[in-house]
From TrEMBL:
This is cysteine desulfurase. Keywords: Iron, Iron-sulfur, Metal-binding, Pyridoxal phosphate, Transferase. The keyword Iron applies. PANTHER family: CYSTEINE DESULFURASE (PTHR11601:SF34), CYSTEINE DESULFURYLASE FAMILY MEMBER (PTHR11601). It is an enzyme of class 2 (transferase). Its EC number is 2.8.1.7. The keyword Transmembrane helix does not apply. Residues 4-365 form the Aminotransferase class V domain. Belongs to the class-V pyridoxal-phosphate-dependent aminotransferase family. NifS/IscS subfamily. PROSITE patterns: AA_TRANSFER_CLASS_5 (PS00595). It comes from Heyndrickxia acidicola. The lineage of its organism: Bacteria, Bacillati, Bacillota, Bacilli, Bacillales. Its cofactor is pyridoxal 5'-phosphate. InterPro entries: Aminotrans_V_dom (IPR000192), Aminotrans_V_PyrdxlP_BS (IPR020578), Cysteine_dSase (IPR016454), PyrdxlP-dep_Trfase (IPR015424), PyrdxlP-dep_Trfase_major (IPR015421), PyrdxlP-dep_Trfase_small (IPR015422).
Length: 384
């Protein structure tokens, strides 16, 4: 039985060239980049080259990139760092109800510390309104944090429009771009963001490495203390092998972005076409025209998500019901709750398919037909 991996939004396989890059650094460049001898200088060169590759991928300057342990740390650093650094200006933060838990739980923590957080609702397609952001702004708002593309339904938020709105306000603007980076073309200057979070393992890089973009002049208090690494903003000896692997993954992603977008859109269209041909009942969660190309979230009325996932896995198809960070939770998806309400049947029958490296059209067709057969079986049984 062929196993088909369609859960790339949770994590992605490491690209062979990235593996080669990591192994090469582990074998040949073990120096500490803070050391002044030749071993240290070699490591420093790799660090600087990687930072240059990554900064240029989003139109940032070399010294605006700080490496982190991943997207979660980057989100935490951005939100808590801004909150602490700007406390004298105000203690109000604006975010949305569909953010990743790395953002939501950080905001909840800050609420316990005396901050006030406004959680903006989204419409039934998963989009936040710029007008709602405008109406929520106050004189004491110090941060607005809105994700670029949602990890569960793929909805792409109006980041550039929010950036324009905030140009005349004191609030810093942060976007969690973990799910969008490497798939969508991002330019921090065009978007008007002050902070942007990214994780390597979503783009066929290694786990445990990411970055936070800081616009020059942005006041962010450090979260880790020690040495003067990462331009004095994040202490600790840099993970050179993973950083070099990350940079290699970024190069590949930038070179193949346009091609991948078209391939993934074709995968989406073909999967939905096969669902229609098999005459199963399904509903699309989100707006296929304004979503990340690699994310497809579908509701199958008359089914149960846990039974579907078990049966899909037995058929060799790896998918999920939403964010990997909450896969073991019995709580319904907070994203679908925000879109459809707590009573919606979609909370109990929605599946996320996400595409990536090594997927082929043949795999998509095979998986779609198997999914349709399983769904048809459940729906037919429930009609009796």
């Amino acid at each position: 039985m062929e196993r088909i991996y369609l859960d790339h939004a949770a994590t992605s396989p490491v690209h062979p060239k990235v593996i080669d890059s990591i192994v090469s650094v582990l074998n040949e460049s073990f120096g500490n980049p803070s050391s002044i001898h030749s071993y240290g200088r070699d490591a420093r060169r790799l660090l600087d080259e990687s930072r240059m590759t990554i900064s240029s991928s989003i139109g940032a300057s070399f010294n605006e990139i700080v490496f982190t342990s991943g997207g979660t740390e980057a989100d935490n650093y951005a939100i808590m760092g801004v909150a602490e650094a700007t406390e004298s200006r105000g203690k109000h933060i604006i975010t949305t109800a569909i953010e990743h838990h790395a953002v939501l739980h950080t905001c909840e923590y800050l609420e316990k510390q005396g901050y006030e957080v406004t959680y903006l609702d989204v419409d039934d397609k998963g989009f936040v309104s710029v007008e709602d952001v405008k109406n929520a702004l106050r004189e004491d708002t110090v941060l607005v944090t809105v994700m670029y593309g949602n990890n569960e339904v793929g909805s792409i938020q109006p980041i550039k429009e929010i950036g324009e709105l905030l140009k005349s306000h004191q609030a810093y603007f942060h976007t969690d771009a973990v799910q969008a980076y490497g798939i969508e073309k991002l330019d921090v200057n065009d978007l008007g963001v002050d902070l942007l979070s990214v994780s390597a393992h979503k783009i066929n890089g290694p786990k445990g490495i990411g970055f936070l973009y800081f616009k020059t002049g942005t006041k962010v208090a450090p979260r880790i203390f020690g040495g003067e690494q990462e331009l004095k903003r994040r202490a600790g000896t840099e993970n050179i092998a993973s950083i070099a692997g990350f940079a290699e993954a970024v190069k590949i992603a930038q070179e193949t972005m346009g091609e991948k977008q078209q391939i993934f859109r074709n995968f989406k269209a073909r999967m939905l076409e096969i669902f229609e041909q098999n005459d199963i009942e399904f509903l699309l969660n989100g707006d296929i025209g304004k979503s990340l190309p690699h994310v497809l979230n579908v509701s199958f009325p008359g089914t149960d998500v846990e039974s579907l996932l078990v049966n899909f896995d037995l058929a060799g198809i790896a998918v999920s019901s939403g964010s990997a960070c909450t896969a073991g939770s019995i709580e319904p998806s907070h994203v679908l709750v925000a879109m459809f309400g707590k009573q919606s049947d979609r909370l109990r029958n929605s599946i996320r398919f996400s595409f990536g490296l090594n997927n082929t059209l043949n795999q998509i067709e095979t998986a779609a037909n198997q999914v349709a057969n399983i769904v048809q079986r459940f729906q037919s049984k429930n009609r009796k």
